[in-house]
Each structure stands twice: as structure tokens, then as C-alpha cells.
## 1
Amino acid sequence: MDVIVGGGVVGLSIAWRLARAGRPVTVVDPAPGRGASYAAAGMLAPVSEVTYTEVPLLRLGVASLRRWPGFAAELADDAGLEPGGLDLRSDGTLDVAFGADDMAVLDEMAAYLDKLGLPVERLTGRECRRLEPMLAPSVRGGLLAPGDAWVDPRRVTAALLAALERRAVPVVRERAAGLLHDGDGAVVGVRLETGGELRAERVVLAAGAWSTELAGVPVRPVKGQIMRLRSPQPLLGRCVRGAVHGASVYLVPRGDGELVVGATQEEMGFDTRVTAGGLYELLRDARELVPGVTELEVSDVVAGLRPGTPDNLPLIGPSGTQGLVYATGHHRGGVLLAPLTTAVLMGEESELAALCAPGRFRDFS
Ligand code: GLY
């Protein structure tokens, strides 16, 4: 049996893929679907989230985005949902600019992405507003990444739990307090907080920011505060983002009128408090992009912990300790990278697997 420690979008996806392949599997998590996946906006946006130094991450993201439509269709079917039940949408991301400096940054980014074979469309302010009439009049231009997509992570985790239930996969709602080792140091299961034990041929550590507590993985919590607003009609037709006051803010619309505004990036350890300052900054910056956001009802505020690694790439694959596999450290891309993570663990992506191999950090442990 495989034990998956962690019931976020990554851990549940792995459990689901293993169960579909006929492997006995058990998930351990005190509150499945309520960690970072619950806070996440669900941007499947490898192109608009790219930075100049992160081509390997871009490659992983593009490969995983390609897998998302098939993954969503299979999952919806397995969970007994309508085909569109996960609210997967692929109308692209519009990155907007206000001043000459921002415009120059977008121009450079467009040239860079073009060189990588990922074409984007350069738009004037008027063209941006034609696409998104609620944008501020001060928007001077933008970059449309037409292939970027997004999904509702809360629906994804609910669907994964439903699919696991239909396949009779046990989900143990407890914290894994430690790993069990045999006399040779191999991992042979997990110890539960209440004193019980689960024996396993393989333990897959997918506990996000908490992975470090169990196995000393080089993963740290990166706090993100995020806000959900609500309007009777969707305010935007696609994801909109932009840099305001030096920080990036994004707005992700859902079909039911929800608008997700995210997210802070804070190095605060295991702190999940929602603060007045965090919410103020999100709203202040979102209002610069789309002034109408201040009219909307606030429906939810939450803070989650992204599992950051020293190189921002995830750790997926054998840990170096027999019986222990890592599927953690997805930082800002857990939802995007979930299909790819399962593919790497199922041996379907050998070339990309090398980019995420945990062995690159062996000196840390
Ligand atoms: N992927 C967006 C974020 O982590 O805020």
C-alpha cells in the first residue's frame, strides 16, 4: 500500500491517479483540501507568471497546463460531475501596464517569450479595455497570454475527494506525526498523532509547507493572503494582473460572479493570520486595475502557506531514503503542477522529472 501524507490538490491527485491505476492507497490529512489549495486562486498561468531566471519552471508549467484539460475531464467524470464542473477556463491572462516603465517591462517580456516560442499579444490601452471594459482608464497597454487558464481549486479538491470516495480510498483525517523506519533506515509507514500507525510500502510526502517537519525537506512556508469578492455578474472575462506599487496583484474571475484577488507574499513562518494591512494592500492595488472592485461584497478572506524551495522548483521523486518519495515544494504552482506531478510519479515524464529530482538538495539533509 502507498500512504500519501497531505490531502491538498497535489496529494489528492496522486492518490486518485494511483487508485485509478489499481494501487491500494491511503491519504492522511487532518483537514483535506483546507490548506494552501483552499487559499489558492487556481491560476494555470505558466506564461504570465514567468520570470527571466525560471525557464525550467516555465517548462514544467507549460507541460502541466497541456495536461489540465484531460485531467479535468477524467476527474469530473470520475467524481460524477458535469464536464465543466471544475470551472476550468482558458481565456488567457491580461497583464496590464500603467506607466512607460511598466510598458517597457511588458515589451521586454513579450520579446523574451517570443524567443521561447510562447507568443503573446501586445495590446494598447484601448485594446485592453475593449477586452475588459471594467479596466481603469489609466491602463496604457497590456500583454495577453492567450493560452493561460484557471480553475477553481476548491472544486478540484472536492472532486478529488468525491472520486476517492467512489473508489473506496481511505482518507484518514489525522495529522501524520512522524515517519516509521525499519532497522536499515528505510521508511515503512507513518505514525499518527493519536498514536496509531499506518504501514506502507511507500510513503509519498505531499504535505506542502509542513513537509519539512516530517522529513527535513528544504521547504519553507511563504504566506499568501487572498480575498474573494462577489458580484451578481462576473466583472471580468479573464484573469487580469499588473504591478502596482512594486507588487504584483491578480484578479481571477469565476463563472458564478466570484472574483479572487491575490495575493501577498510574506516570509512569516507558519503564520496564517489574515491582517488588515494585507487586505488593505490587496484592495488598494486591485482598485488601481479595476476601480469597480470596491463596490463588490467581500465573501471570504484567507491566508495559505505556499511551500517554497530554494530554487522555486518542486521536489518530485525518490527522496534518497528507501520507501520515501517527495511530491512537495510546489510554491506558487501547486494547482498548475498537480497533473504533471502525478505524471512524473507514474513514470510518464522522464525528461522533465530530472528538473524536479530531489537529489539536487541532498546536501541539505
Ligand atoms: N500562483 C499565485 C500565487 O501563489 O499567489
## 2
Amino acid sequence: MAVSDHVNLKKFVAGVKRRNPGETEFHQAVFEVASNVFEYISDKEIYHQTQILRRIAEPDRIIIFRVCWEDDNGNIRVNRGYRVQNNNAIGPYKGGIRFHPSVNLSILKFLAFEQTFKNSLTGLPMGGGKGGADFNPKGKSDNEVMRFCQSFMTELHRHIGADIDVPAGDIGVGAREIGFLFGQYKRLSNRFTGVLTGKGMEFGGSPIRTEATGYGTVYMMEDMLKHRGENMDGRVCLVSGAGNVATYAVEKLNQLGAKVVTMSDSSGFIYDKDGIDAEKLAYIIDLKTNRREGLSEYAAEYKVDFFAGERPWRIPCNLAFPCATQNEISANEALLLINNGCIGVSEGANMPTDQDGIEHFIAAKLLFAPSKAANAGGVAISGLEMSQNSARITWKEAELQNLLREIMANIHEQCVTYGQQPGSDYINYVKGANIAGFIKVADAMVAYGVV
Ligand code: NDP
Ligand code: 2IT
């Protein structure tokens, strides 16, 4: 990067920090994109003139609201709900809803910012948004979750719509919550439209939406290996998380002949040296979606080690798939992975590796697929759920399986095109994804003039 680009980047980042004090996750996400984009746009005056990056890093609007609900003991509870509508240059705002006690403005702004580039990479017409609440679904009854979802949607419904903003699931929001949210939207608006994705198959859902994120994350690794003339067969893999993304990443890894030895949740991780096969995975899905309990139960059932309060990255492996949450791989853990022989990381979660960790992976020339490329399969099938809803038809599962595979291969290609390092055969997928994702959004914004 030229010295003048460095200076501009520093000034830009300082401005973002000044305008968004204390929002560390948002700063982190903006820095990661800006550090690649500044170099790319250095000789492209139009993007400077029109202040495109500055505009993308300022959400179109943010809605913050009180969510009041009654628990099973008759107590009145109050939470805070949000929707960050980051950018709709290339389509309606699109992105998940997260229910987790850690949810705050910084986390949702980083997620909405990332989503803008991710959605662009899918090639489908979707802008970027994200929402959620600091509500903790753990330990709540189904009725409490229903009442919370109904109250949350009672405000949110004014701000969303099939052509305006289409939310979906994320941490703490799965099939059960989407059902409650959609039911309340329908009741309030008297409209049956594709206003949410991840819906049940009985009410407008799409085949393979549940599997798409996890499968896509593994396809991205498969394509990176293929590009180097290698494959997945027999690879020892670490997976973190035990939710939607993690479980379907494990399913696809098993189908492709890899061996998954860890999964994790907020209580710790399990290390199963024999591999988490299809039968054991079915146990985990039941444990997490029906019984809603911790992974120590798995350790007791299958007599394997459970490490309370720890993350899996110190276990030797060939490949790693962080699929739980942001900043779950620190710089030291990145070094541990590299030194223990890991050759590839594909991020199922959003921003799971911190900035120094990313730099270690790139310096060590790992196959490293950043989240906005690696986990785009989920929102891609959400985009196709929107298409099916508009046309009032449901496509066949086989068609969607093929489309998901093609979309992930296309994202891989875009990363290669923009991430090829000059004078080397190394592909910097972070740079590739940031630049490819940026171009389409930026060019649409330029076309609209100053808005
Ligand atoms: P789920 O709620 O289904 O699962 C999340 C998993 O991660 C759970 O096992 C949870 O543990 C664990 N986890 C959550 N927070 C923490 C934490 N702070 N520390 C340790 N473990 C934690 O969510 P998803 O699988 O949907 O989402 C996982 C990641 O993937 C998120 O980063 C999300 O943004 C991203 N993502 C999701 C997509 C989707 O389609 N769902 C699409 C693209 C990205 P526990 O079981 O104990 O709660
Ligand atoms: O981070 C993500 O891409 C998601 N949580 C899925 C978004 C969506 O609209 O399907």
C-alpha cells in the first residue's frame, strides 16, 4: 500500500472511531474492509469524490425500541430491540435477527456492515441489514419466547416488508422464533408475504435454507483446496459452535469424508477423537434444538472429554471451522492453529477471527476464507426463498442444492480474481472478498448520485 493510502486509511479509521465511540466490533469490521478497499480505490477518483466508503460506513437508519413482555410468573420484563438498516443500494435490506444478552449497537452495526458486502458477493439483489435484542432465550419457556417475539414484532413490523427489509435467523433465532415472528407479522399486517426468510416449509420456507450456511462454509473450503489441487478426504477438522451453522457444517464435512473431532457451545467444547459421525450429530441436534441443554451431556453419553469454559483451537487439526460467534479466535489461538499444522480456516460465524489473528493466517499463507465469503450460502438461499415467495412457487430441493453449490463456487472465483497476490500464487481471500463485495454496492451508489 502506498504511503498516501496509509495516511488516508488512518484518517478514515480515526473518523469512524470518533463518530462511533466505544463501538469496538464496528470499528474492527470497518477497518478490515477499509484496509483492502483503500488500496483498490487509490487510483479511482470517482469513489473518493463521492465519499463512497464513508457513506457505506454510516447506516441508512437505525431503529431502537423497547420490547416489553410478561414472563410466566407474571413479572413485566423489558428488553431493547434494534434494526440496523445499513444499505439498500442493490436491494431491500436483508439480514438476520440475533437474540443474545450480549447484543448491542456495536455488534449489530458490525453485522449489518458485513452483511452489505456478503449479500453483494452472492450476486443476488439484497442490501444489508441486521437486527436483534438483548433478550436471552436460554431457560425461557416456549410461551415466554412466543410473547417476547410477538412484542418484538409489534414494533418491528412497521419498518420491514418484502420489498423493504427482510429479516431472518441468527444466534438465538431459529425455526421456533421465525414461526412466532412471522405469525405476529401476518396478524398485524393481514398480509402473507415473504417478509422473513427461514420460514417453515408449510408457510413459504425454502428447501435447504436450514442447511445452507453450514454447507456453504464447507464448499468454500472444498473450493480453496481444489484450487491447490487438494481435497477434503480424511482431513481432521475442528468445528466450534453447536447451533444451526455448526451442525450442518459437520454434516457436510462427514459427507465429504472429513473427520470432525470437536464442537463447542457457550459452556465449553467436546473432543471426540473417533469423530462426530451422523448418529452422534443427530444426538447433538436433538440436544440443542429440543432438549436445549449443554454439550457436557454429549461427553457423558459418548464417554469423551469435555473442556468446560474452553475453546477448541489448541487441538491439532488440518482444517478449522469457527461457527459460534465473533472474536472466538484470538491472535494466540491463530498461532496455535498454525503451529499445530492447520492449513485452512473457513469462517461459518461472522468475524470469528480477530484482526491480528487474520494477519497471522495471511502471513502464514493459510487457506483462509473470511466470513463474508464463507458463510454467504445462508443468505443466498434466503434470497432464493424471497424469489420463490414472490413467484408463489417452491423449487425442488435438487435445484436449490445445485444453485447453492454454484453460488459458493462463484464467490470463490470472485475472491480469486480480486485476491490474487501480485508475483505469488497465494490468494488473499480477505482482500478478494472485500473488493469484490465493495464494487457492486459502490457502483450502484455512484449511479444514484448524492443521496
Ligand atoms: P445458533 O444460535 O444456532 O448457535 C450458536 C452456537 O454458538 C451455539 O452453540 C452457542 O452456544 C454458541 N455461542 C453463541 N454465542 C457464544 C459465545 N459468546 N461464546 C461461546 N459460544 C457461543 O446460531 P447460528 O448457528 O445461526 O449462528 C452462529 C454464527 O454464524 C453467528 O456468528 C452468526 O452470525 C453466523 N451466521 C449464521 C447464519 C445462519 O444462517 N444462521 C448465516 C451466516 C452467519 P449455546 O448452545 O450454549 O447457546
Ligand atoms: O449472517 C447472516 O448472513 C445471517 N444470519 C443470515 C441472514 C439471512 O437473511 O438469511
## 3
Amino acid sequence: MSGISFDVRRKDVAGRIGRLEINGKAIETPALMPVVNPWKQTITAEELSKKFKVEALMTNSYMILKNQELREDVEREGIHKFLGFDGMIATDSGSYQLMVYGAVETTNKEIIKFQEDIGSDIGSFLDIPTLPDAYKPRAEEQLYETLKRAEEIADAKIVVNAGIQGGKYLDLRKKAAEEIGKRFPLVAIGGIVPLMERYRFSELADIIATVKQNIPQDRVVHAFGLGHPMAFPLAVALGCDLFDSAAYALYAIDGRYMTPYGTENLDELEYLPCSCPVCIEHGLKLKNLYGDDKVKALAEHNLYVSLKELDRVKQAICDGKLWEMVIRQCRSHPNLLAGLQRMLNHSEWIAELDPITKKSAFYDIGEECGRRSEVINVRERVKRVKSDNLREVRPFGMVPAEVADIYPLGSATTFREIEDQQTYKVRDIVKVRALMDYQFGEGAVGLIPDSTRIMKSKNTKRMRWIYVGNEMAASIRASDHFIIPHDWLAGKLKEKFERPKLRVVLDDDEESVACVKEGKSVFCKFVKEVDANLRCGDECIVVDSKDNFVKTGTLMLSPKEIKDFKRGMAVRIR
Ligand code: GUN
Ligand code: ZN
């Protein structure tokens, strides 16, 4: 398979901001690829690039193949020149037509070859989308044919958006994800457009979560045809990286006006809830436009809204506020709320991927917050702490007062905040000992002798440095109250706990060990083993293959991801 690379830059919930490079063209994910109809470009590829700053689009190779005039042009010029777009071009195979019309006039091999010939950056094989309400034997039969076709094109010369089918049957989705995930770096969840159209978000959430749980974490995940902005927060939070949308143009034909919360009928609106360039320019006169002008204006609005919503999702990832965004947004429609409830059923899995510390406070904005992944991680960690000084921090439950300052407990802001404002007087050393157990594991408390001196910041009056004898053992980060072990404490932790606990073990490569010693980051490909109980954002101890101490650092990905990724940073060294 030709050149594809993907690495993760930022994380929140099970979502990520990544960099995807194919054929030397790089885009940031999550990304929305607008679909361009080769017959009739409602918004042209050139406009997509210039006006909308779109870096990747999708078009349909089957429609080109089946029209002699188009085909000859595209075969001669290549797809990029034909569309006047030099960004990343994905092509679909006719599978969608197969779903809608029941048959297509091409073969799997022919359509892949054609996509290679016209220079697609990302092709699709002829997967068979199963309708959501198909009976299981039918879904199964279609899946087996799909898997056979995947096998048939395993040596394709282009990167393939490899379809994962299985309808609404999660055991079939699991099987499909395992088989496709094994072979293809880019996988595409298919057959979900009808779910989106009928707002069946609970099934959609289960399908995405099932697929993600059964593929290696470094696979780029495309959600085929998921082009409505109301689905973006949920889908990204579950780990989708790519979307394509024909919806922006198709909805426009029917006068449907997209918003991040649903779809309105333009003709029924008395106020426009949007300030994109189209809505600003036309105001309500948008309703009075005619024919193609109206379709185009509405398509532009729909696309602006979709692209903007994805930007908001990305900002939420940067802020560590994606859970909050999903919860807020899912409260706008009962079916989205049902989707959120399903997503929360997967919180144990999400807890393994979700960063353990975040930039923003934990806002308790509704009962769903009690099932967020952070709550699961806190409940697991408070079990390590011995205390008879428990206090309630909603929605986490009873937690030792000694650790109440650490993220997310210290930042938890509930709507009953005022009642919670009783302060607990706990001696600093007692706090530090409890934090040691909470953060590193039961027994770490023993590394803090009575002679420990704890210095406070003059400004904030919060604990800042921990000295044992003359050694600066650790510092305490102001933003989240995490203990940052210095070499002395890291050494003690390593003695105390057996491999692999708290460790990132480097490969036997002397050169990479030397680099890390100098302070360079640890990259995934040099990691041999990671403690599975660590979380992204945790402080960890980097050791060589013989368990000699190398450095301390911060885990930038989850242990699962570090195992699966061959690219990107695993540990930022201190
Ligand atoms: N477009 C929308 N859904 C699908 C699908 O399941 N497979 C393919 N190839 N394209 C799609
Ligand atoms: Zn608008």
C-alpha cells in the first residue's frame, strides 16, 4: 500500500486531533471531505479550496466510469486536473449506488483499477452496504462478500477506504472490524447513512464504539457519509477521524437548512440562527432566491455550518472539554441523548484512552456527567488511598479529603457548589502521602518519611515542592495538583514497584536510549512495553530493557495507543 502516515497530536475522550499524510499531502483530522458530484458541482472544487479552505474532498469514481464523456476526460487528465483541485481526493466506488439501486455495472477489481488509473489519493473497493434493518442472514451474507472483496484488492496500489459493514449487528461489526482492521490502515464504517438520516444515534454510537474497540488504535477511521454536523461531537468523541458529506448539497436541494442541532426547513424560518457569509449577505431574503441560486446558497450555508462545527469540536479537544460539548449538544435532541446514553455504556473503554488530566475544569452539567470516563478513573484510583476522612465530591462520590485538590476533583464544579464549600483541614504531609498512593499506586505512601519538607508557593499558598532530606524529591503542578517526580523520587518508585508498573520500557537500541537520556522525546516505535494501568497524561518512568532508569516524562498517548502506533510521540521527557 502506498504512502500513508498518521499520528496523533491532541487527545480528549476517545477522540483525537491527528495529522494524516497520503501521497505527500497532509491534512489535519478530524476532517470533513465535501462530496463533489462530477456531473454537477453545486459548489465547485475550486470554490471548496479557495473559499472554504477545504484540503480534502470526495467524488464518485463509478459515476465517472459509467459516463463515456466524463471517463475519457478524467482518464486523460487525471482526477486532480479534471476537478481543478490539487489537495487530497478520495473516490467512492459505487457502493452507495449499490445500496440505493440494488445493483451496479462494474466489478470490484475494475473499479479499483480505474481509481488507480485516474490518480485518486484514496480509493474505495466495492463493499456492500447493508441496510440497517436487513435480517441478520442477509447482513452476514453481504459481510462475507464484502470481506472477500477486501481480500481481492489487498494488493491495490492506492490507499483504500476499506469498508466495514455488518448492519446493526454488533457481532458482525466486530468481525468486520477485526478482519478489515488487520489489513488496512484506513478503515471506513459503512452503511450508516440511513441511521443518520433517521436520527438513529444510539445504534450509530454502538457501531462506532464496537468498530473502534476491535481495530488497532493507529487505524484512521472514516465514517462513510456521516455529513450532518449534529453527529460530529458524538462521532469524534468516539474516535472517528474522517467524514464525508454529500448531505450539505443534497439537503439544499430540498430546502433543508442545517444547524449543529438539527435540520430546519428554510421556508419556515422567521429568523436565521447563523452568521455565516451566506446568512449575513442574504438574511431572510435567502428564502426568496430561486432555483439553482437558492440551492447553491443553501448548500454553502450547510457547508459552512458543518465545517465550523468540526472546528468547535477540535477546539473542545484542545481545551479538554469534549465530554462537556457532547453532553451539551446531545441534550438538544432526544435521539442524540439516546446516543449519548449508549456512548456512556462504553465509558470503561473510553477511560483507557481519555487523558487523566486536562486543561479545563470538570463541569457537572447534568446527570450524565456521573458516567464520564474521568469518574471511572477517579473511582479506580481512590481505591488505592487509605483514608478515614472521606468527603463527597459530586459526581465522583466519596473521595479522600486528602486528594480533593487533584484534577478532576479539585476543579469539579457542581451546581450545588455552595453546599460543598466546607473546607477540610488536612496536614500537608498527609495530603502528599495520599496523593502518592492515588497517583502511583498503593504503597507509594511509604516513600514519604516524616522528615519530608513541603514548601508552598508564596503567591498561591499551595504546596509546590517536596524535599526529602536535601533531595528535591518532586514538585506539585499548580494547574492540576499532580506530583511530578524528580529523578530521586522516580528512582525510589522504581525500586518500590516491579516492572512494568509505572514504566515505559525502551527497546534494546542503544542509540535511542542515549537520545532519551539527552532529553529527546520517546517515540512509539522505540517502546517495548508500557504499564497498562498508566493513562495518557500520567507521569511515568522511562527505563531501558534491563530496567535501568533512563528519565522521567509524561505519557502523551494511552498505553493501548503506544502499542499500536509506529509513529508519533509516546513520552515527553522532562
Ligand atoms: N457511502 C455511504 N455509505 C457507504 C458505504 O457503506 N460504502 C461506501 N463505499 N460508500 C458509502
Ligand atoms: Zn448560515
